[in-house]
Amino acid sequence: MERIGIVGVGMTPISSGKKEVFYDASFEAARRTLADARLDQGALDQVVTAGYDLACGRTITNMYTTPAAGGYMKDETRISDDGMFALAQAWMRIGAGFGITMCLAYGISSEAPMPLISNLMFEPLFHRPFGPYSGNIAALQASAYCAESKAKPEDAALVVVKNLKQGSKNPRSRRVKPVTQKQVEKSPMAAWPLRELDLPSYSDGTVGLILAPEHEAKRISSCPIWIEGIGWSIDSYYLGERNLAELKSLSEAARRAYLMAGIKDPAREIQVFEVAEQSSYYEIMAYEALGLISPGGGAKLIRSGATELSGRIPVNPSGGAISADPVAATGLFRVAEAVLQLQGRAGKVQVQGAKRALASVSSGPAGQASCVVVLRRD
Amino acid sequence: MRRVAIIGVGQTKFRTRRDDATHEELTFEGVSRALEDAALSISQIESFVYGTMDPFDGVNSPDKWCVGGAGAVGKPYIKISTGGTTGLTTGIAAYHQVASGAFDIAMAVCTQRVGVGDDAQSILNTCVCPIYERDAGAGAITVGAQQASRHMFKYGSTDYQRALVSVDAHKNALNNPYAHIQVDVTPEDVMNSRMIEWPLRLLECCPRSDGACAVIFASEEQAKKLCPKPAWVWGEASIIDSYWWGERPDLADWDILSLAGRRLFKMAGIENPIKEIDVAELYAPFTSQTLLELEALGFCGKGESGPQIEKGVFKMDGEMAVNPSGGVLCTNPIGATGLVRLVEACLQVTGKAEKRQVPDAEVALAHAWGGTMQLHALMIVGKHKR
Amino acid sequence: MAEKKEEFIKVKANWNIPYTHSAGKCASHFFQEMKEKKRIFGIRCPKCQRVMLPPRSFCERCFVETTDWVPVKDEGVVDSVSINYMEYTGMPKPPYAIAFIKLDGSDSRLMHFVGGVDLSDWKKAKELVKIGTRVKAVWKEEREGRMTDIMYFKPISAK
Q1: Domains in chain B: ranges and CATH
Q2: Integer Rg of chain B from CA
Q3: In sequence order, what are the beta bridge partners of B110?
Q4: What CATH number is associated with residue A333?
Q5: Which one of A294, B112, B134, B220 has the fewest CB atoms closer than 10 angstroms to its CB?
Q6: pTM score, two decimals?
Q7: B210 lies within 8 A of chain C by CB
Q8: ipTM of the complex
Q9: pLDDT tens, position by position, B276-306
Q10: Which long-range contacts (CB under 8 A, 24 or more apart) does C4-10 make?
């Protein structure tokens, strides 16, 4: 398969929504993406989108967003999951012969009660009557992890402090103020053990990427960012049959991506990590799942400061999902942030001299499904 | 790009409700049938694509729930939802996974339980733009009815011609043990059935069905090893028109399907569709749509579908058999329906269609549409490699 | 699995999800004009020049922003129609006719009801609302800024 590169990035501002119709955001993101690649919409061979119908309150939302993303009368498909899964499918479609591709994810959290939307992911027979949703299941996971690893709320608070410090510098953030560990520990309890600030910040945001096969990518961009490895996987639905203290689908997705990219020691070979954290504890667990430290060592790693912007293995220099969580686009935003890092365009959150980056996302309760991509510049 | 074959297909019996199984269990049933057909074990499937339209089942992203039923736990798994085309775009996604070289064996799985919603039309109404159009109460039937009235007005097609579409479909469904509605109807039955949305009557409209199906794609190398009689994929296409159906040049002509068809035929090397294609499984939940689709895909001239149907050109023993399965008019598990078309196309070209087998069928087309008539997906499969 | 025949349990579930939809700046203006002045505006694409109705902030064909509001008459011609006789949960009470109406001055067609005539018998109704019928908007007195500020479009010939 020919190498596939990312040659354009475009994002709408992150917002609290309720101002514009959601497909106008797709249009805006697509225009910015095309402008970034200095391409006209006519250059697109296909459009691959991702978004959640229920969050948008319409069925078949690609009816609106695909034309808005430049797909009118073109080949298209839509992934009903985070945009990183759309990136995976777009990558394979290009491998099967498609040319220049718009990959776009629309994250709309402002038009519907997101906890209820999340609750509806649970079938009505066994789980739904008990009121589970992403937040309280992340809490369930956090307590399971603490029990097994001896991680403490203070450790999780450090993740929040780190990510909001970054988020306050990144224009693409919804929570714009840095916080102290004390402030985190005083924020309202959302679902024990998670406080409000331990959980992602629901946002609206739309992001586009332009992908192209190598022969086109080099013509379009002076610095294409190559998809060096990509993997995705899913764990069981039944929470009661899983070990909640580990992120199994994330580690499996990473294993696949590393295999493809030929990576043996990610902490040494990758310079930037953009991880869509479902909670502060999730990020600590992700350190282990991604192989940055051995199992059980996540809390030690956050305490050491290694994952700070200035640290040895910066994680979420963008501020991550705790800073902004445009659900369904959060993962593709991570990819976009990673691309900006590798191209030296990340502004105040730039990691110096990064050659290789990783982006990851999980969707579904307690990180049920995950996707990992390893990106590299020449 | 690699050559790809389909080495196994499976489907459940479709019914109004399957009270005996959950969504997840139905998925398992469809997947199991495909594995049996291919004589494979689940461990041989490297990657999965799951398709469904969420709101019908009353569960948001039921793919997460059904992963176990699909046999995909611990494996790559992607969810596709593109409206009525979902079934076929799910198949196309699995095809691309293999064609690209990313995987050697991939499975497309679709489950839909339209019967779970107390009223499918109120769910279909959620497709319609809530800002401009939803208040008008439009649903899927509106699409078929608008096309019917416009086609009658422009080309003079008749209630009788549409009734014949229904008669043929119902006769074919009698020979398909998986079909949902299995009754013999006469043109008079159709034309005397209850008026649903003028000009469409009850027997011109699809049922809502529960069921699942699965299709297994393999690289040429694997297909040769694993399957004595695969169906070879000749080409695929998908397309999107504007959402705004008021801007279509004319609702009597499905222009966007014509465009997708031309791209498909170019990829598959088809020059004269009606001569070269033996079977067409068209997504027509309403009789009127068979007329428009036959014309849009060039199986007859504009406005000629009605008279050609009267001549029997598209019957089982006609020039090209249309919907030997009984089609969508007799079975419609919405998000799975497109994949059911592909299942039937494969059964026909591999000679496994039993009582409904079209003799010597070598090339078959599968089609699906979705949204406000704006989305289409197509695939052609052949008995031989292209 | 037990051999005994057991009843299959059915669990009732219901989606009742409240939504707050953003109309966006373009439709907001459009609705304001309808609400306050009973006026209908299309929007023109600066590139292909077509007047779009309902108006949106961009032309997906030319991929440019739309800018110029163009007044459109509140009467036009029925381009296609269907008449509903079945009742569905949460949907309008039948009978009702849905039409795409080409308003004078617009290049696209607007979806709305055709009403003000007796639709109870489809045989008679299809003659009253057929393609080519000229219709005019019947506005509500109390308007709230949405599509239903027009109750329906009434055939001009109807009394």
Answers
A1: 4-119+208-232 (3.40.47.10), 132-204+233-382 (3.40.47.10)
A2: 19
A3: B51, B213
A4: 3.40.47.10
A5: A294
A6: 0.94
A7: no
A8: 0.97
A9: 999 999 999 999 999 999 999 999 999 999 9
A10: C8/B19, C8/B20, C10/B19
